[in-house]
Design brief:
Elements (H helix, E strand, L loop, with lengths): L5 H5 L7 H15 L8 H17 L2 H10 L6 H14 L5 E2 L2 E2 L9 H9 L22 E8 H4 L3 E7 L2 E7 L8 E4 L15 E8 L5 E3 L2 E9 H6 L1 E7 L2 E7 L8 E4 L16 E8 L6 H13 L2
Parallel strand pairs: 3-7, 9-13
Antiparallel strand pairs: 1-2, 4-5, 6-7, 8-9, 10-11, 12-13
Helix pairs in contact: 2-3
Length: about 300
């Protein structure tokens, strides 16, 4: 498999910060998301490549391995040990997990040797190669799961494919953006009888067009007309579980924020606990006034003197 430069895939520098990686991933994921590009195979391929790059670079340990070992990052330590053994003892008939030094007499690349040991390749030189004698735990798998904010507010199950197997997980209400969970044994298969790796899922909570999340609190902008702002009244406010009525005090100022207790986001793994909803008033001024309306506003202005 050809080496993929994950930094180039995300369009970032190799010294990019975690925030820069996250920002680049989100921008590209929105651009190439299948829902935005239905039936576009190239966009689908690009979306998978972007996710793969993010799964590696957003994980601190995996990124360090990738930076150090490049295309062999999944088996970095094994690669380094085997390389040292190969280079340090290659002059004799030392065996390397079924490979003898003579196997490299033709100048074969060590990367090919390592791939045949760990990458499932068929070897080189026309011979059938042995396998590494040690048992190794399978590679951990990193996955990013996009969850709309409203879905993240409810406990629900989600099923997806990992290594050709169906994995069903329960996502608790209140899951945080960037939060990671471990699903034991659902990573890559072990080597030579070793245990399977684990699956680590990082949650990416998608923005909502109406609510903004701030920890366990939600914020929302509520548009009211000038007359309600001046005279007061009652308005409907949208929450995660339906509309509620809210009384507006006469003379409310533009930008005023009111707090609705318990109408925010559910607290993670704490049944019945919720944050608050912060509602900010935005007063819409009337447009395209008639001559009569302008005259009335002029009278009001004169009365205020």
């Amino acid at each position: 498999m050809a080496f993929i430069d994950y930094y180039k895939v995300l369009g970032i520098d190799s010294k990019a910060s975690a925030d820069e990686i996250k920002k680049a991933y989100r921008k590209l994921a929105r651009k190439y998301h299948p829902d935005i590009n239905p039936g576009d195979k190239e966009a689908e391929r690009k979306f998978k490549e972007i996710n793969e790059a993010n799964e590696v670079l957003s994980h601190k340990e995996n990124r360090a391995k990738y930076d150090k070992y490049g295309e062999h990052w999944k088996h970095g330590e094994e690669y380094q040990k085997a390389q040292q053994q190969y280079r340090g003892q290659g002059g004799g008939q030392q065996s390397y997990g079924g490979f003898s030094a003579e196997d490299f007499a033709d100048g074969a690349d060590f990367s090919d040797f390592f791939q045949s040991m760990f990458g499932g390749g068929g070897g080189f030189g026309g011979r059938t190669r042995g396998s590494a004698s040690g048992k190794f735990k399978g590679q951990d798998v990193e996955a990013t799961l996009n969850v709309p904010l409203r879905e993240a507010a409810k406990t629900h199950q989600q099923t997806f494919d990992i290594n050709g197997k169906k994995v069903r997980i329960t996502i608790p209400a209140g899951i945080a953006d960037g939060q990671k969970i471990k699903v034991k044994g659902h990573g890559s298969p072990g080597y030579n009888g070793g245990p399977n790796g684990d699956l680590f899922i990082t949650f990416n909570i998608l923005d909502d067009h109406h609510f903004k999340r701030q920890g366990n609190n939600l914020s929302a902008l509520l548009h009211i007309d000038l007359y309600t702002a001046i005279l007061g009244g009652e308005v409907h406010v949208r929450t995660l579980d339906g509309n509620v009525n809210l009384k507006v005090k006469p003379g409310i100022q533009n930008g005023t924020t009111v707090r609705l207790k318990g109408k925010g986001f559910p607290v993670y793994k704490k049944d019945g606990e919720f944050g608050d909803l912060l509602v900010t008033y935005h007063v819409d001024l009337p447009k395209n006034l008639s001559d009569e309306e302008k005259e009335l506003f002029l009278k009001l202005k004169n009365l205020a003197k």
